[in-house]
Design a protein that fits this description.
Shape: globular
Structural class: alpha/beta
Largest sheet: 5 strands, mixed
Number of strands: 10
Order of helices and strands: HEHEHEHEEEHHEHEEHEH
Length: 256
């Protein structure tokens, strides 16, 4: 089932915010002027920025600081003590690790949406690639690193269609190993999905694998060559939760 599409992305994102209690109290006047820090998977950047603007129309006293990057990078920042109030992850592993270390506020974790891996190219690129099954036809590929959720999902899909050998942990497959196996001379490894997208949009790479949500706003510039089946990747679940923030005062905690 594809939960996310371009016509409903706004509604999905609104549900996301309501689900994790981001909308806050019903009485706006109870808020004091404060700010909260939201760490989000880069694939949600455009949607969350739009929603932040809408949120601030109703709650002008709450400043929302957004930090968008790969879920793995955000996990490291949180574990190292970065001030974070809410975390939207692109995979369960990062959230599991935070929960194991008691860095999530109890009872706030929710699975909020299911994304989908896609193979994209610039419109009129004249690529011979139709999807993962013949991705080796590309002269250059933008691929997220193995520790980035979309990079791991892509590797799992390539294993499941027989392009890569089966391993216990797909995140252990290096970009170099993929290049050698598929005989692709140029694979540009990227830190997160936004950089994968930029590589395709800037024509430095012929194709790339990213999330369906990343195509939001770029419909006139990108062609989606393949919506990768959940049978190949598994569900691409995004969990969200409140993070234990020892630096937050009462106003900040209440707003979060």
């Amino acid at each position: 089932m594809k939960w996310l599409n371009k016509n409903t992305v706004w509604y999905i994102a609104v549900i996301v915010l309501i689900t994790v209690g981001f909308v806050g109290c019903s009485k706006r006047e109870e808020y004091k002027k404060t700010e909260i820090n939201v760490f989000l998977a880069a694939s949600l950047d455009n949607v969350i920025m739009d929603l932040t603007e809408k949120f601030n129309e109703e709650n002008p006293d709450i400043k929302i600081n957004l930090n968008a990057d790969s879920s793995a990078t955000l996990l490291t920042q949180i574990k190292e003590g970065a001030s974070c109030d809410i975390f939207f992850s692109a995979a369960q592993n990062q959230m599991n690790e935070l929960e194991e270390e008691h860095l999530i506020k109890e009872g706030t974790r929710r699975d909020v949406l299911n994304n989908q891996v896609v193979v994209v190219t610039l419109k009129n690129s004249n690529t011979k690639v139709t999807g993962l099954s013949d991705i080796e036809k590309a002269e250059s590929i933008a691929l997220a690193g193995a520790n980035v959720p979309v990079g791991k999902y892509t590797r799992e899909a390539l294993i499941n269609i027989g392009k890569l050998e089966k391993v216990e942990d797909a995140s252990k497959i290096t970009t170099k190993a993929i290049s050698e196996k598929l005989r692709i001379t140029e694979i540009s490894e990227q830190d997160n999905v936004s950089k994968v997208l930029s590589a395709v949009l800037e024509q430095s790479c012929e194709v790339g694998t990213t999330y369906y949500s990343d195509t939001y706003g770029y419909e006139e510039k990108l062609d989606v060559l393949e919506y990768v089946s959940y049978e190949l990747t598994g569900d691409v679940i995004y969990p969200a939760a409140r993070i234990v923030n020892e630096e937050a005062d009462e106003a900040q905690d209440r707003a979060a």
